[in-house]
Every structure is written in structure tokens, then in C-alpha cells.
Amino acid sequence: MATASKGGACQRAWRFTTALMRVICVTLLFVMFSYKVRDYIGAPVVSSTDLVPAPLPAITVCPASLNTTVHMQLFPDWWEGNVTTEEILQMSAIEADQLVASCATTDGTPCGSWQRRRVPPSGITCYTLPQRSDALQDEVATELLLELNVFGELTNGLTLYKVFLHAEKTPKTFYGGGLVSAYHLVRQGFMELVVTRSERVNVNKRQRPCDEDPDLDVNQCLLDCYSRAAFSAANCSVQWGADTAGLPPCRTLEEYDAARDSWRSGRPRCDCPRPCRQQQVTLNTHDAMPPGMSQTIQLQIRFDGLQMQVEERFAYSLVDLLVDLGGTLGLLLGYSLVHVVALGDQLVEWLTVYQQKRQTGDEVVKKVVGGQDDGVATMKKRMASSSGSELTIISP
Fold this sequence. Notes:
- By secondary structure, the protein is of the alpha+beta class.
- Among the domains are: 26-44 and 316-359, YojJ-like (Helix Hairpins, Orthogonal Bundle), CATH 1.10.287.770; 48-215 and 275-314, Acid-sensing ion channels like fold, CATH 2.60.470.
- The chain has helices at residues 2-42, 68-80, 85-91, 96-99, 218-234, 253-265, 318-333, 337-394; strands spanning 45-53, 58-63, 100-105, 115-119, 124-129, 141-148, 161-166, 182-186, 190-201, 277-287, 297-304, 306-314.
- Helix 5 (218-234) packs across helix 6 (253-265).
- It starts with a helix and ends with a helix.
């Protein structure tokens, strides 16, 4: 008896221990599952760095101020409202062939055609050399020699031009704070500009989405946003390639100054999309000795043929999640995917048998209850017939 009781106690202790271990394993399974799923939802990323060929950035040349000669001649009429702001801006513009003396690469290839545009906040007419994607991969650097004519009518202190270098289609001329493209204030003489580019490729995350459109121009979105705010405050618009918000053009000098001041002081909230590809242009300037006496401003622009590209990718993908979940399930419960499928089939079979037994039990109960009801009805009929016969016997 003592041995049997001792063996039963050991068996109960072992069952309790195995049950406790199973509970612990299931608990750890759910805890580890929750951590892995949280990591997957958080969408962590890792970055890789590489050197890739870089296209030549766009170049925009802007005069430092309006044509002072035209401005002074028409200023009285503009003040009195006889000449509109649009007419002043048109007559103050300088043609590209008058502005740019020459532009060519080191082998003498012309730069190409310049595109005309107006830029805020003054509405000065500028010229843009579009971005070139045919950069030579075999060369370490590419050089351009840009010569600009000297106009006394454009003199603004010691500055004659602003030369912007940008990776986007349009330059950020002035948006306040750091929202401005890399530029150089051009004075008389000879300067060397060294341009480097970098690119960051972001992943499109749910927590921080970005636009994967390669033709997305965020600068145009900012231009429209700032322009609408400035034009609404001044109650008139200036034609510089932005959304006019349906407002009439500014005619008088007072309206023009109001629109320009509103642009400079305004800080609107712009819901512009964040591009997945963010490019940055860095500009370093160096004084250089001119190759000879010249009556033009010479800029030797050197482009690095390679750029640093930082590309993000997801560090924890769906495949990684499934692998971790399968490993955890096998470690704690000893199950694989095949065992999980078999367990599911067995569970479905159990539920089917249980449902059939339940339906069979309901039918048996109905038959028993129905039989009792039939017996009661038969008894009532017999009693009724018996009472009827007795009345028949008693009646004369």
C-alpha cells in the first residue's frame, strides 16, 4: 500500500510538472509572438551606402535686381498706375543671349538651350539650364565654363547675378529658413565652383509615407503654397509660374510691394508630399586666376561624376516574421507547419463529430417527448370513450 501510494504521488507530481511546463511554454509563445509582430509593424529600416553615377544638376542664372534703367524710367507711371506690374516685369527682362555670353563643356560642346522662368519674390526673369542625365561615367569630373555678360543696369551693390544649382526642375530661390537651393553670388572676375551631389532613397513606410513618383517636383508645390498665401494677403497676384488662387494681377507699385512683403514674411503650412528620393547639392567656391583678360564674368563649374547614395530598405520583412514565428513555435511546442495543419484538420473533425452528436441527441429528445405526448393524448381519448359508455349504460 505504501509503495502504491508513493507511486501515485510521483505520477501526480509529474503530471502537475508537465502541465505547468506546457502553460509556461504557451505563455512564452504568445509573448515572443507579440514582440515579433510588434517589430514587424514598427517597420525598422537599415541603410546602405554606395557611389553611383551622378547626372549634372540644373543651373539657374538670375540677375541680382530688376533692370534699373527701365525701372527708373517707368517708375512715375508705375506709381501713378499708368503702367501695370506685368508690363514692368516684361520690360525689365533680359534675353538669354544677352545674359549668357557662352556656355560649353571642356571639349567645346555647347551646354544646350536655356529655359525662361520668373522667380519670386520680385518676379525677376531668370534662365535655367535643365538637368543633364548624360554624365560620362568614365570621367571622374565634368567641367563647364559659363561666361556671363556685365550689365551696369543690373548692378546691385557688388552683386550682379545669383547662380543656383539644384537637382529639381525648379530652384528654391527664397522660401525662408533653409528652404533655398545652393547658390553663389556672382561678382566680376573669375570663380571656380565645385559641385557635389548626394541622394537618399527612403522607404515608403506607413508611419511616414513618401511619394515614389520620380517626376515629383516639391519646389513647385512649395511655390504654389507660398504664392497662394502671399496673394491672398495682398489681394492680387504676380505672374511667376505659380497658382494665382483666382486673384487679379497686381497693377500698382503698392500692390506689388504688398505681395512681395507678404511672400517674405509669410510662413504658411504646406502639405507637400515628401519624396522618396531626396537629393542635395553642395556648392564650394574658390577664387581662381583667370586664363586671360576678359570683359565677361567667368565661372568654371566642376561637377563630381559620382554621388553618395544612401538607400534604405526594410530590416524586418514578412519572410523574417514567418521564419521567427516558425522557429519559436518549434522550439517551445515542437510544432512545424505540417503539424499545425494536421492539428487544424483534427480540430475540424472534432467539431464535426460534436455537432453531429448534438443533432442526434436533439432528435432523440424530440422523439421521446413526442411519444409521451402521443401517450397522453391516447389516454385522454380512452377516458373520454369510457365516460361516454358509462353514460350510455346509465341512461334509460
